[in-house]
Design goal:
With about 325 residues, this protein is of the alpha/beta class. The protein folds into two domains: about 150 residues, NAD(P)-binding Rossmann-like Domain (Rossmann fold), CATH 3.40.50; about 150 residues, Dihydrodipicolinate Reductase, domain 2 (2-Layer Sandwich), CATH 3.30.360. The protein has ten helices and 14 strands. The strands form two sheets. An eight-stranded mixed sheet has the order 8-9-10-7-11-12-13-14. Strands 3-2-1-4-5-6 form a six-stranded parallel sheet, with helices on both faces. A hairpin with a 2-residue loop joins strand 9 and strand 10. Helix 6 packs parallel to helix 8 and helix 8 crosses helix 10. The longest helix is centred in the last third of the chain and has 17 residues. The mean pLDDT is about 95. Bound molecules: nicotinamide-adenine-dinucleotide.
Length: about 325
């Protein structure tokens, strides 16, 4: 257990998830790495790095941080960092992680998806195995209270056996499935693995991963539970949703939605059962707070492994790569 010194955090990538999403009026807070650090009583932002001078300027103004760099190697050479946040685009994660692992950083939080390609993701896993840093991948859904509750319901068998899951990830009118899978799709794949507590096997895929018109459906299985994932273009709105069907109940959980039903005597049909909604809701999910609490607990040595590991990030990449390959577009 480390002494009660302030925990020194630094962020590479001062864009949306690094900082700016904290100023989205509607999002639950904290909603960014900077916001999570600054709302933790034990932590400070000691430095930030971005190749874009405008982002550095906005970050200085927002968080009163003056140790700003345009080169992550120089920041890592000059600053003592306890928790490093990598919040840059996916195609930079491999090189930045490699640089970070060359320094002695106890905890690294890396944004999803782990990398832009499966090859990079595999290399990152290989590098990480040889290092002493402990790495969290920010697949934040597994930290959220609503999904943690769903996992408990599954384990308790309160509604009997989980029979199947239907999942939806829509990211806008012209968002190709290949892009959606690497964006919110990686959260969904990770969530499905987390809920099922099993690896996902991709059975078949229908659709074109590169189309800006056609949706894509992937039929998968986790243990005995079949799952249908639908993603791709065609809608002008965003949806992230899982619909779990149990022997005696149903749960629909997602962005801005939580519905839990149990089976009961039907008010519509004699001698039959229908689903009756229960009064359960989650005003706050604490998704980002709980992810960062995990990073702090790792730094304080209260845990040896995070709840969202690099191996989980790699597993999601493998499933995404498989879906895209089976759709015939890479
Ligand atoms: N967990 C989540 O819910 C969530 C939400 C949004 C984004 N993300 C992920 O976060 C990452 C960043 O996404 P974003 O939307 O914040 O992007 P963004 O473009 O808003 O921010 C990325 C920043 O990184 C900077 N950058 C790029 N290369 C760099 C380098 N080599 N060194 C230093 N800075 C560099 C860019 O200038 C930019 O300011 C992506 O991996 C994305 O998938 C996660």
């Amino acid at each position: 257990m480390k002494s009660l010194q302030r925990i020194r955090c630094a962020i590479i990538g001062l864009g949306r998830i690094g900082s700016a999403l904290e100023f989205d009026r509607f999002r639950e807070k904290p909603a960014s790495h900077a916001g999570a650090i600054m709302s933790h009583p034990d932590c400070d932002i000691v430095a930030g790095c971005d190749v874009d001078s405008e982002k550095r300027r906005a970050f200085r103004k927002a968080w009163n941080c003056n140790a700003l760099y345009d080169d992550c190697a120089r920041m890592l050479d000059e600053c003592e960092i306890d928790i490093l946040h990598i919040a840059t685009p996916p195609d930079t994660h491999r090189a930045i992680l490699e640089c970070a692992l060359g320094h002695t950083i106890p905890v690294i939080v890396c944004e999803k998806p782990l990398a832009a390609t499966l090859t990079d993701a595999e290399e990152m896993a290989h590098m990480a195995e040889k290092s002493h840093s402990r790495i969290i991948i920010n697949h934040e859904r597994r930290y959220a209270l609503n999904y943690a509750h769903v996992k408990k319901v599954i384990a308790s068998q309160q509604y009997g056996r989980l029979v199947s899951i239907a999942a939806k990830v829509y990211m806008g009118y012209r968002s190709k499935a290949a892009d959606a899978l690497l964006d919110d799709g990686t959260h969904m794949i990770d969530l499905l693995r987390f809920l099922a507590n099993e690896e996902l096997l991709v059975h078949s895929v229908m659709g074109d991963a590169a189309s800006t018109r056609e949706p894509l459906c992937a039929l998968m299985k986790a243990g005995a539970v079949p799952m249908l994932l639908e993603t791709g273009p065609g809608r002008d709105h965003i949806v992230f949703e899982v619909d779990l069907s149990f022997e005696r109940g149903r749960i629909v959980a997602g962005n801005g939605i939580y519905e839990e039903y149990e089976s009961a005597e039907s008010p519509y049909y004699e001698h039959m059962k229908s689903l009756r909604r229960k009064d359960i809701s989650f005003v706050k999910t604490e998704y980002f707070k709980r992810m960062f609490d995990d990073a702090v607990a790792l730094f304080k040595d209260e845990k040896t492994a995070p709840d969202s590991t690099l191996k989980d990030g790699l597993a999601a990449m493998r499933v995404i790569d498989c879906i895209i390959a089976m759709a015939g577009q890479k």
